[in-house]
Queue: 3 jobs
Job 1
Amino acid sequence: MVFVAWVMRNIFLELQVYTRLRIWWLTNPHHSAKVGASTIMVSPLPQALADSDERIQATFDLFPGGVRQVVVNRDCSALAELIEKRDGYAAKLEGLLTSYAVANEKARQKAAAKGTPPKEVKRPTMRESK
């Protein structure tokens, strides 16, 4: 029981230190001048808010210090296309690296069976065709 009380006391004290440090950092002029200190991303906006920048501004003015600028990305189709293209490249690269690893392992096992040093397997390359 004494050990549990000691652990709980230490956790409480560390949380106090963490809270003080976090408040100091968030109110530090060096940090608060950065864009990341005052930027938030809100994903699922209700349609009533998404249609009006003024409504969004009024909603988020409740934050301390208010809101300087509201930017709403209403058309994400170009981003979706880029993400799909990136995922395709990632899948292709993963397949190439897997086949390279398999070929290396086979060459290593074959060389070990013969008692010779393994041959270097050619690394795969991938280029975007334009």
Note: The two ends are 69 Å apart (CA to CA).
Job 2
Amino acid sequence: CRQLFRSPSMPSSVIRPILKRLDRPQDRDTPVKPKRRRSVAGTPSEEAVAEPVCDEEGGGKLRGEEIENLLANDHRELIGDFSKAYLLQTVEGKHQDLKYISPEMMVAVLTGQFSSLIESCVIVDCRYPYEYEGGHIKGAVNLPMEQDVEEFLLKKPIVPFDASKRVIVIFHCEFSSERGPRMCRFVREKDRACNEYPHLHYPELYVLKGGYREFFPQYQSHCEPQDYRPMHHEDFKEDLRKFRLKSR
């Protein structure tokens, strides 16, 4: 019997069945007739012969209800090491390969609504220092360059004291359009390189949708100082030029 298909990159403990169709049992009592192949000119039609889909332990054919249950229970996406589902509710963002959270969800984390499940939440502000100093989310750490984030997160990885709790990392920049997403991908790439697949130091990464620009007007009380300094501020043109050169 054939096993349910699984991606070669997916560990054997995670089963994500992909089924194009279900072959119904060819019992006498079933009202469904078997499909026939289309006949090619000059060739008689033949009944399509399909191999049965079997469970992995050789216990016989899976019933349609069982397969449907497997699919129904497989709707949650797993974090980077495939150990569990993402904790925070995500929203659609610019980059389909990344997980975005709303400003409201960020505040839920900041106010301790997930404290029983999260031991440490690292908010990485990827903006340039003059932007960060002009106003940032309370508790955020300013890591604008790749070497900064590699030094902070990967040289000595953050490990939870309670193994049942999580360490999550949330990235953002001014709009979370370029710098934040790029840094998120960088951390995942470096994390993969220094671990045996699929293990990761930080399997649960998020990006704050809309960045500081969208967060600040709604939740000024969670910012310090309570202000917003844009990247293209008139008084910091030279700083912007220097940091852009350094980041190349």
Note: The CA atoms of residues 37 and 43 lie 11 Å apart.
Job 3
Amino acid sequence: VFGKDINLILVLNNLTSDRKSVRVDMSASTILYTRRAVAEVLKAATSVELGPKQGKHIRVKIPYTHYGKYLTTDKRIQVTALCEVMRTNGLKLLVEKTIILEDTNIIIKLPRRVVVNRAVSLEISYANPLPEPVSRCVLLVTLMNQQVKINLARLAPRERSKIYFEFTPRRAGPLQLQVDFSCDKFSHVKGFVTIAVAPA
């Protein structure tokens, strides 16, 4: 989840009946959806001794403080482990994993029944998932081909808040409502819902 530390486990298994020494070089970078690296956020090396048929777990932690400011709107991190088995003429194994971080969830609550030409009040709640305050918070609400920009108060670390949004549907049928939440530390956290508008 975006805003939390990332905990990973690299699992190494020795499938042979000989002892193995393995050097592991780990790195992680924030990337774009095209896989182009933006910034390296982790670099670590360790050596592991594996007995015959033995498995070992290597725990890796990427704190939010390391990746937060380098994350793009794609919210992707590429983790790589290059495992070199010693004394085997440089036998190497590359393990890769792309992590897509989950956004803070925007929650949109609708009344049970929405009727044409009758005013409706929606509850939109949004959150700051980070361990630090955020400011310059803005909600963009898109509905019936119109966009409303709402400037919000700053949010304390991990704070959740809500607003009420009122509108009057002009025709029956499905209506798409989209909410886009941005602030000074992250942008374009989206939430959307389809509203079924009943005839009067």
Note: The longest helix spans residues 64-67.
